[in-house]
Every structure is written in C-alpha cells, then in structure tokens.
C-alpha cells in the first residue's frame, strides 16, 4: 500500500483494494505504475507476475519488475521479436 487510502498502480489498474503486503506496491507507483502494469498484465498476466515476483529474492525484485515492464512494452511494440528486435537493432549500429 503506497499511502493513506491510495492504491498502488497495479491495484489501481486491476480496480481492487491495495492491501498491506501487496506484492506490486513497492514496484508500481500510483501515478506511473498503472501504465507500466497495464503492459505487464496484457503480456504476462497479473497472476503469473505475482508468482514470479514471489520466487525472486527481495533485493532483486525491483530490477525484475523494471525488466518485466521493459520487455512487456517491447513485446507490445513488436509482437514478433519483442525486446530481441531492439537488441538486434542496437547490435547492427
């Protein structure tokens, strides 16, 4: 839970009450988190992401959430190659 009476971006997107101990709250802020989580939810699904985050050590979860967000946005931009297409384009420069 991010603040008094406010939901995290993930709970805001999912239209549910953000509880104490919400797995998404530290990684998806109220203001920008909803847009980042929307891409993650569309590509991977909220349930799969919560299970994945629970299996990652606490100190690595922030990086994992950021990576999932980047990969989901890349997959929405390029459904065939996703982030691999972007990596390949950078290698060709």
Low confidence ranges: none
Count of folded domains? 1
Structural class: mainly alpha
Q: Compute the number of strand runs.
A: 0
Bin the helical content.
55-70%
The topology string of helices and strands comes to HHHHH
Strand content: under 5%
- Biggest beta sheet attributes: none
Determine the mean pLDDT: 89
Q: Which descriptor suits the 3D outline?
A: elongated
State the separation between the terminal residues, measured CA to CA: 43 Å
Domain LOB: 6-93
Family: Belongs to the LOB domain-containing protein family.
Protein name: LOB domain-containing protein
Pfam families: LOB (PF03195)
Short description:
The protein is mainly α and 93 residues long. Helices cover 56% and strands 0% of the residues. The protein has one domain (9-91).
Description of the molecule:
With 93 residues, the chain is mainly α. It has one domain. 56% of the residues lie in helices and 0% in strands. It has five helices and no strands. It has helices spanning 9-14, 33-43, 46-54, 61-77, 83-91. α2 crosses α4. The N and C termini lie far apart (43 Å).
Quick tags:
mainly alpha; 0% strand
Fold blueprint:
Blueprint: H1 9-14, H2 33-43, H3 46-54, H4 61-77, H5 83-91
Helix pairs in contact: 2-4
